[in-house]
Design brief:
Layout (H helix, E strand, L loop, with lengths): L14 E9 L2 E15 L2 H5 L9 H15 L4 H15 L3 E11 L1 E3 L17 E3 L4 E9 L4 E14 L24 E11 L6 H18 L5 H15 L3 E10 L2 E3 L14 E3 L5 E8 L12
Antiparallel strand pairs: 1-2, 2-3, 3-6, 4-5, 6-7, 7-8, 8-9, 9-12, 10-11
The chain binds uric acid.
Uric acid (URC) binds next to helix 5.
GO biological process, one term: urate catabolic process
Function: Catalyzes the oxidation of uric acid to 5-hydroxyisourate, which is further processed to form (S)-allantoin.
Family: Belongs to the uricase family.
């Protein structure tokens, strides 16, 4: 028996970056967390402690900040591609780079006394948005292949009707009563794979988000699984730059509270919003001609 080194990668996780763009008195901010992981000729560092092949994780962090200054941060996918290509193309020992970015949204705080022309009552004050987190995952390989997956998480949605659940298996442990009208709530995590790295990432993100919300709102739901499929299907029917959508949706159960001890009825008005346990519904929706995913999701 011989022990050998298996798959490995290393990098700087969760580099926090806030980039301010000063357009006169009107400022813009981009708030992101960048994680990079590199792999390649890394046998020696593991087996003998020779670090000659290692682009340090500290350097990776510094590169994120230097690139933010030199290139700015527009769409997170473009920034991730820039970094991933740089690591692979600048270092012969690095054969593969994985860059993951999260973006947090901020809204402007309108100000009353703003006299600056063109400032439109908004200058340099922001409030962290209650919106979802935008994500991307980019891989670039020394063979020239780039894969891009975009996504979002914590998109919290609720339908207060138009959701049923019945007709499921009844075994000796089943107690769940069927319902013809329930609250359906979830926090959507969705990721979608681009066919090429030339996608219009900003427009694509806004449209996919709209598709997910639209399908959630407009689907009369017989199960969260059915709603999940409808959401992925709408994305792929709308956006031709995409070939695969992966969704994870916790079923945020809302239980009707029994108010009879207090002499009150409860006609679907007062609910206990349970946080755990929760059903977790996960699924992939894809075009039947989707090319091989390679390492895109890893
Ligand atoms: O939409 C649902 N899907 C399930 O699979 C399930 N299971 C459950 O207990 N409630 C629900 N709801």
């Amino acid at each position: 028996m011989t022990v050998i080194l298996g798959p490995n990668r290393y990098g700087k996780a969760e580099t926090r970056l806030v980039r301010v763009v000063r357009d006169g008195v009107v400022h813009h901010i981009k708030d992101v967390t960048v994680s990079s992981a590199l792999s390649g000729d890394m046998e020696d560092v593991h087996l003998t402690g020779d670090n000659a092949s290692v682009l340090t994780t500290d350097t990776q962090k510094n590169t994120v900040y230097a690139f933010a200054r030199k290139h700015g941060v527009a769409e997170i996918e473009d920034f991730a591609i820039l970094l991933a290509r740089h690591y692979v193309e600048s270092q012969p020992t690095v054969h593969h780079a994985r860059v993951e970015i999260e973006e947090y949204f901020w809204d402007r705080i309108p100000v009353a006394d703003d006299s600056a022309p063109g400032a439109d009552g908004k200058r340099h004050s922001f409030v962290r948005s209650g919106r979802e987190v935008r994500t991307c995952l980019v891989h670039h390989d020394a063979d020239g292949t780039t894969t891009v997956v975009s996504g979002l998480k914590d998109l919290v949605v609720l339908n207060s009707t138009d959701s049923e659940f019945s007709g499921y298996i009844q075994d000796e442990y089943t107690t769940l009563p069927p319902t013809r009208d329930r609250v359906l709530a979830t926090a959507v995590s969705a990721r979608w794979r681009h066919l090429s790295e030339a996608s219009p990432y900003g427009e694509s993100y806004a449209e996919v988000r709209g598709c997910l919300l639209g399908a959630f709102a407009e689907t009369y739901s017989l199960s969260l699984q059915q709603t999940l499929y409808a959401m992925g299907e709408r994305v792929l029917n709308t956006r031709e730059e995409l070939c695969e959508v992966r969704l994870a949706m916790p079923n945020k159960h809302h239980f009707l509270v029994d108010l009879t001890p207090f002499g009150l009825d409860n006609p679907d008005e007062v609910f206990y919003a349970a946080d755990r346990p929760y059903g977790l519904i996960e699924g992939t929706v894809l075009r039947d001609d989707a090319p091989a995913a390679l390492f895109a999701w890893e």
